[in-house]
Specification:
Blueprint: H1 4-12, E1 25-34, E2 37-51, E3 59-66, E4 69-76, E5 82-91, E6 113-114, H2 118-121, H3 127-180
Antiparallel strand pairs: 1-2, 1-5, 2-3, 3-4, 5-6
Length: about 190
């Protein structure tokens, strides 16, 4: 019989997780919530550390250079906000923690690539993640349509106001021109 903790952890673990190793170049799809809106943000970089690989608290540290500044993010692999992790490139490394990469830049930071089977490493049939991604995209499309409809209503109001103002201006101009026209002198 499994220990109680292992049973509870198994309930929250994802069924399919990509086989990520240090030295991989990975693309992490993360769900980001900003106010009432939700979107998917992709963070691509070098995996410099993998911690507790078979645990519920397994995490991956990904590093990339953005605008000349090194940015590192640590993602919990089984977190609901991480939709999927795909391995793009695999490199030959002999350490679990590639901290020396931080001090290197340019050609010194390059790692030797290794051939690998992308289909075997990356999990393609994660139905839950795909359903979540489709749901977010559908919500974004609905929000966009609602915003477009709202903008169209506002533009129609503005257009009506402008036409009303033009009509008033034309009426005023006509009445002024009729008043200003001098009566023809009698002969």
């Amino acid at each position: 019989m499994e220990p109680v903790i292992a049973q509870v952890e198994a309930k929250y673990k994802k069924k399919a997780v990509a086989d990520v190793r240090p030295g991989d170049t990975a693309r992490v799809h993360q769900k980001v919530r900003e106010g009432s809106k939700e979107r998917i943000q992709i963070f691509e970089g070098l995996v410099i550390r993998v911690i507790r690989k078979n645990s519920l608290t397994a995490s991956v540290t990904v590093r990339r250079i953005a605008s000349g500044v090194g940015v590192e993010k640590t993602f919990l692999m089984h977190s609901p906000s991480v939709l999927k992790i795909e391995v793009i490139k695999r490199s030959k490394v002999r350490r679990n923690y590639l901290s020396y990469i931080r001090a290197r830049s340019g050609k010194k930071a390059r790692l030797a690539g290794v051939e690998f089977d992308k289909d075997a490493v990356n999990v393609e049939d994660d139905a839950e993640a795909e359903a979540e991604e489709a749901k977010i995209k559908e919500e974004q499309a609905e929000n966009y349509e609602a915003d477009a409809e709202q903008r169209a209503k506002e533009e129609a109001k503005e257009e009506a106001k402008a036409e009303e103002a033009l009509a008033k201006h034309d009426e005023k101009a006509k009445s002024e021109s009729q008043v200003k026209e001098p009566a023809e002198p009698a002969k």
